Amino acid sequence: MAVPELENDSTLEKILAEHAGMAGPLLPILHAVQESYGCIAPGKVARIANALNLSRAEVHGVISFYHYFRQHAPGRHVLQVCRAEACQAMQCEQTEQHAKRQLGVDYGGTSPDGVFTLEAAYCLGNCAAAPTVMVDEKLYGRVTPQRLEAILADWRNR
Amino acid sequence: MATRIYVSRDAAAQALGADETAAALQVAAAARGSNITLKRVGSRGMVWLEPLVEVEDESGQRIAYGPMPAERVPELVKAGLFTAAPHELRLGRVEDLPWFAKQQRLTFARVGIIDPVDLDDYLAHGGYAGLKRALGMSGAEVVQEVQDSGLRGRGGAAFPTGIKWRTVLEQPAGQKYVVCNADEGDSGTFSDRMLMEGDPLCLIEGMTIAGIAVGATQGYIYLRCEYPHAGHALRSAIEAARARGFLGSDVCGSGRAFDVEVRMGAGAYICGEETSLLESLEGKRAEVRFRPPLPAIKGLFGQPTIINNVISLASVPVILERGAGFYRDFGMGRSRGTLPIQLAGNLKRGGLVELAFGVTLRELLYDFGAGSASGRPIRAVQVGGPLGAYLPESQFDTPLDYEAFTAIGALVGHGGIVAFDDTVDMARMARYAMEFCAIESCGKCTPCRIGSTRGVEVIDRIMQGEARQANLAQLESLCDTMQHGSLCGLGGMTPFPVMSAVKHFPGDFSRDR
After folding, report:
1. Which residue of chain A is at minimal alpha-carbon distance from B497?
2. B interface test, pick of A16, A27, A35 with most B CB neighbours within 10 Å
3. Please, are residues A71 and A42 in contact by the beta-carbon 8 Å criterion?
4. Among B388, B312, B408, which residue's Cα sits nearest to residue B344?
5. Distances (CA, A) of A83 to B22, B301, B386, B406, B441
6. Chain B contacts of A39, Cβ < 8 Å?
7. Which of A23, A30, A122 shows the shortest C-beta gap to B269?
8. Does B496 touch chain A if contact means CB atoms closer than 8 Å?
9. Is the confidence metric ipTM above 0.90 for this complex?
10. Which of A113, B94, B157, B468 has the CA that lies 20 to 30 A from B369?
């Protein structure tokens, strides 16, 4: 079987070096890789596995287990819409439907202009001011479809 | 002298515009040449009044105004906000508001009052008094104090914290760990988040006491990645504690070592289950472990490990500071102390109230929550997150107490209460419970992995009116298998919301739609 050649990637090497000697380093490494590159591309897996003395399957298994880790780059911003119970109690389906219509994608998709990746969230911890959405790290409460439109307009130019 | 103004930096306050309000206050002050000092604090828990602004008046009292969106700031400032002048948004002292005055704030005593990452502010408000006392006691004495307080795991399982600690204490010396479960994934819960954002040093102090007591030198806070603000607050607080010797190789000059590190989760609800959390910390797929061995005996990296929820650990400083008896005197039955309760979903006055066990759901929903936000009757309430039962109005007089809830087939869990008005379709909520389980199942055991997907299908058939009676019987049988055959609480407790919906709201499963 052909083994893919290890990429010569100084950023990745720096991340691996920073985590050398850490106990249980795989998740922190994956977070750092995703933060640097926007995603954990399949091409990075072999080098990470090699550095940690794991198989590629083990690393891939971890990446694919967790909803947060992505293997493809997202849009410029990530819009998370909470669809857990507290938000449902405040009619979050309307916000959800509106988000899907406005962006022209379903959950997991990126709007054709490449600005927003739409994701479902299962509780963002803002349950007393539902429905809730989050754009990147910015949280918004009581998000009606109208308020969502204003939020999207604001972020579209950032 | 500069007028002190307090605005919350809690994520929920920010979600309602607190940052914009804070910025508008600075602009308005500069425009008028007013000398103000803006302090960003945690939230008082009154999410319905956010953005809440507090102004220190001449006598040093903090006078609250709210809700104050940025666009109302110029008007308020013109009316004399900086001198705490009268206005329709002026609420008076927070401590005098009935919603706040009726609470018993022990764990959340400092939240909303202090600057969360200012160690001096923490010390000035009683911070580290618990650790100071613990350092003068033996490990066994500290564990006994926690056990005598009656504290039970606030994450939901309600296991006596002291017994967990004792098991770790009794393991032979060697590497031991303290792990904080901050993977607060339950819908309707946010007390962990508010504590970590509003008083992170309290959690760090609780972990330090745990470490000193059982001989653990390393602590980890496993934080869900949906909580970036809490992560920032925790890291700043850890740095502040380290810089002043409250963490590190020589904690407060005691010669004992303890340090804490924040580790981020990656969007897996199952990590709230303690053994899968440990797997995740070790860098693996978060699949649930078989028990035994217990984490207290073989936990993180195979070593004895205390693993507790945020609120359990954050309740420890006050127990050590004031004594086990002080804490135990709150509460009812075997549920001792206080519980930070989260009022969420369709409620007019949502937020966090900390109360002694024993308060009824009805008091919480109507006296504190002021009824539904929509103005319609409250039809169903889910307590304890997505694995908690749905309760009908006839059960609203149940007191919040672990045993009383177990007796009606429900759970207190992490103290989250989600209210639904009469527009809710309980068959849809039951379907969602199964769907959520299917999305979040770790896949290790069949009843959970397969049962949840079959559950969605069976409920779909019931909703479509296809052989209703036969499918309801099928659903009951499936829930029985999941409840008794699953490896952990995810598959094992998903039947609670499902079957409680069927039992208490049968009409929603028999009507044509």
Report:
1. A85
2. A27
3. yes
4. B388
5. 30, 35, 12, 28, 17
6. none
7. A122
8. no
9. yes
10. B157
Asked if B297 and B354 sit in the same domain, the reply is no
Last residue of a domain, one of B296, B311, B328: B328
Nearest Cα to Cα of residue B11 among A129, A150, A78, A146: A129
Task: Output the tens digit of pLDDT for each of chain B's 513 residues.
Answer: 799 999 999 999 999 999 999 999 999 999 999 999 999 999 999 999 999 999 999 999 999 999 999 999 999 999 999 999 999 999 999 999 999 999 999 999 999 999 999 999 999 999 999 999 999 999 999 999 999 999 999 999 999 999 999 999 999 999 999 999 999 999 999 999 999 999 999 999 999 999 999 999 999 999 999 999 999 999 999 999 999 999 999 999 999 999 999 999 999 999 999 999 999 999 999 999 999 999 999 999 999 999 999 999 999 999 999 999 999 999 999 999 999 999 999 999 999 999 999 999 999 999 999 999 999 999 999 999 999 999 999 999 999 999 999 999 999 999 999 999 999 999 999 999 999 999 999 999 999 999 999 999 999 999 999 999 999 999 999 999 999 999 999 999 999 999 999 999 999 999 988
B161 within 8 A of B148, measured Cβ to Cβ: no
Nearest-Cα distance to chain B for A112, in Å, is: 26
Handedness of CA A35, A40, A44, A45 (dihedral sign): positive
A77-156: CATH, from 3.40.50.300, 3.40.50.1240, 3.40.30.10, 3.40.50.720: 3.40.30.10
Domain with CATH 3.40.30.10 in chain A: 77-156
B193 touches chain A (CB under 8 A): yes
Amino acid letter for position B51: P
B50 touches chain A (CB under 8 A): yes
All residues of chain A having their beta carbon less than 8 Å from the beta carbon of residue B421 are 89
Q: Are residues B164 and B138 in the same domain?
A: yes
Q: Are residues B165 and B298 in the same domain?
A: yes
